[in-house]
Amino acid sequence: MNRPAWSLLPLLAAISIAVSHRCAAQARKPGAIQGDDAVRYELVIAATPGAPAGTQTTVLTVNGTSPGPVLRFREGDLARITVKNRLPSEETSIHWHGLLVPNEMDGVPYLTTPPIPAGGEHTFEFRLRQSGTYWYHSHTGLQEQLGVQGAIVIEPNEPDVAFDREHVVVLADWTDDDPTTVMRWLMRGSEWYSVKKGTQQSLLGAWRRGAVSNYFEREGDRMPAMDLSDVAYDAFLANGKRELRLDARPGERVLLRLVNAGASTYFHVGAGEGNLTIVGSDGIRVQPVEVRRLLIGMAETYDVLVTMPADRCTLEIRATAQDGSGHASMLLGEGPLIEAVDPPRANLYVMDEMLAAGLASQMPKRALEAATAERPFAPYGLLRAVSDTTIVGPDTEVRELTMRLTGDMRRYLWGFDNETLAENSTIRVRKGEVLRIELINDTMMHHPLHLHGHFFRVLNGQGERSPLKHTVDVPPMGKRTIEWIADEEGGDWFFHCHLLYHMDAGMARVFSYEQDPAYRPTVDPKLLEPAYLFFDATVQNHMTMGRAMLMKGRNDVFVRWDIGLPSAFGDDHQDGGHEDNIEIDLGWSRYVDRNFATELGWRYADGDGATSRAFAGVRYRLPYLVMSNLSVDSRGDFRLTLDKGLQLTDRLGVGASVEYDTNTQFEWLVGIDYTLTPNLGFSTSYHSDHGYGLGMVFTF
Amino acid sequence: MKTTRSKSPLLALVLFAACASGPSADVIPYTSDLCIVTDNKLGSMGDPVVKVYGNQEVKFCCRPCVKEFEEDQERFLAKLKK
After folding, report:
1. E strand or H helix at A353
2. Could you tell me which CATH class the domain A531-699 is placed in?
3. What number is the ipTM of this complex?
4. Which of A371, A484, A525, A640 is 20 to 30 Å from A303 by CA-CA measure?
C-alpha cells in the first residue's frame, strides 16, 4: 500500500508554530503546580453536596466544583496530571477529549488506561502537540452526567486571533434523577420525559398544530412519535450556573471558548444583539465566519468572538436546549439587559425538520441555508480551515467504509449497522492508511460521533480547506463523510456517539491498530449491554394486570399477569362482573427488530376451566402501531392478541385490547389512564371477564 | 401516476393474494433497499412509500421525501442510472 504523503500532525503544527516558551506560559496557569519542566495539575474527584437545579443532591466534582478547574497549557508543554479518586466506592477515569496523546494516556478505562479505583490515583503525562479549546471528562459509566468534566485551554505559541478578553464556558445539562434511573427509563421506552418537557405527542397536540392527518399517517406508517432529545433535564448550566455573569466592557471583543459538556443536549447559542463570529471548532482555528445562532453538539467546542455594544449594557448569550425545554444564560458586562431570544420550537408532528437536517448534510446549498436559519443545523457548511488539510495525494490508497447509525427510542438499542458494541466491537486499521468513512444516519435523532486520538476532515464541500474535527454531528436522515489518517503509533481508539446514553446502549466501536484477527480489545464491561429491571402494573378494584421485566441487550426475561380480584363493589359472575381467574406468564423474549420479537414461556392458569401450559409466539407491530401477539401452546391452542393505545393529551391516554384464544375464547378490555408522576397514574377500565374497575397504575 | 403503499409483510401477503395479476409488467422495479432521496435504509423511517413515475417504480423512506423528489425528479432519477 502507498503511504500517504501528508499526515494531520504536520498540519496541526502548521496551524501554530511549535516552539514552547515555558516561563511565560507557567505564569498564566492558575492551579498549575510549578516544578520541573512539566506543567502539573492534581485533580481530585469526589462526591460533593450541591444543588445545580435548586434541590439538594450529590454532584461528582473535580477539585470541589463542577465543572472542574480549567487546565491551561501552552502548546509544546509537557502535561503531568494526577487524578485522585476520592469517591466512596466507584472507580473513575478521565479522558482528555480532543487531545492527541499516546494511547495509554487516552483515559478510556479498560480499553486504554486502567480504571482508577476508589481511593486510588493515576498520573498522566503527555506532550501537548496542539493548541485550542478542549475538555476532559470521566469515561466511566454515566459519571459525565453527574459532573466529572472541565475545560482545557492550550495557548498557541503565536497569537492566532485578536480579542480583548477571554472566557471559558462549559455548557452542561443536569438531572436530579440518578443517571442509572434515567437510563432505565429510556431502556423501557417510558414517555415520562416527553411528558415532563412538554414534547409528548398527542391527538390534542396534533390538532393544535393542524397536523391530525400527519399524526395518523405517521401511525399508519408504523413510525413512532419523534423527539429531539431523550431526557427532560432539571437545569441547563453554564459553568455550573443557570445564569453566569462574565466581565466585559463596552466595545470589547470577547473570545468565548464554548464547550458542550452536556450528556445529551444540543444547544442553540445566540446573542441578544449582533452575531457570533466562529474562529475555532474543536480546538482548531477556522476562517472567521459570522452566524446569527450556532448549533453546538455534545462534545464539540467552538471559539466564538462576540463584540460588546458600544453603550454600557448586559449582553445575554443564551444556550437554548435544541428541544426548547430550557436554557442557560451567559450575561456579559453590566447595565441594561439586552436579552437573547430562544429559537422557535420545532414542530415534531411533521418530519420536515429532520428531513431538512438530513438534506442539509448532503447538499452544500442546503447546508448554507441551514446554517443561517432561525433554527440552524451544524454550521459545517460554513467552516473553512485556515490552511490546506488535504491528506490524499494522487497515489494515495483510500480505504472507504460506510457505517450506518441505527437504533430507535422504543427499544433504546443503539449501534452501527444494527449491531451494538457488545455484538461487534472492532474495526481494524493499519498504521498509515487513510480512511474515508461515510456515516449515514438511519435514525430520527442527531448523533455527535467522536473519534479518540485523531482529527478527521469533514468533507463539507470546502475541498482542500475541509475543516478538521474530533466530533461530528450526523443529523437525522443525514450523511457525513469524514477522512482521516491512522497516524498514531498503535493501540485501540474509541469511536462512539457522545450522547452518553446512546454510547451506553451500544453505539460505539473500537478502531484497533492490532492486526491479529484473534485480538479483541478490552472494553469497559459497563458498556456491554448492562441489564435493567423494570415493572409496571395496574391495580384496580376488579383486577390487576402488569409485567416485570429484566432487559439485557436484545433479550428480556419477563413475568406478566392478568388476575381477577374479588370485587370491592360486590359484583359477581351472574351480573356480568367478575371471574376470579388467574393467568401468569413467565418467559423469555428476543427482540429481532423494531417491528418483530419472539417469545417462549410457561403460562400458569387457574379458573374458568383454564389449564397451565407452555407457549411460543411472535409479537409483530402492525400499521397504526397496533401490537399483535400470536402464540401457540403445548395443548395445541392458538391465541391472537391485538393492543392499541392512543394518546389524547400529554397525560391522558386510551387503550383497547382484544384477545381470541381457541381455549378460552374472546376477551377484551378498554381503558383510560392518566399519568400523574413518573411512577403513578390513575386508571379505569372495562374488562370482558372482570367487569368495570378503577384504580392506579404503578411504574418502577 | 400510480401510487401504492407498503404497509407490512402481512398486508403485502393479503394484497398479493387478492391481486393475482400483480403490478404492471412494464414497470421497471426499484431494486435498491435505499431511499432514492436520502439514501436511508428503506424501513428505517417507518414503512417505505412506493410510487411509479412513468414506468419507473421508486421507493422512499418517508412521505416528505416524495415532495423532495418531485421537485427535482431528474436529479434523483439519475441516481438509478449509476
Report:
1. helix A352-360
2. mainly beta
3. 0.85
4. A484
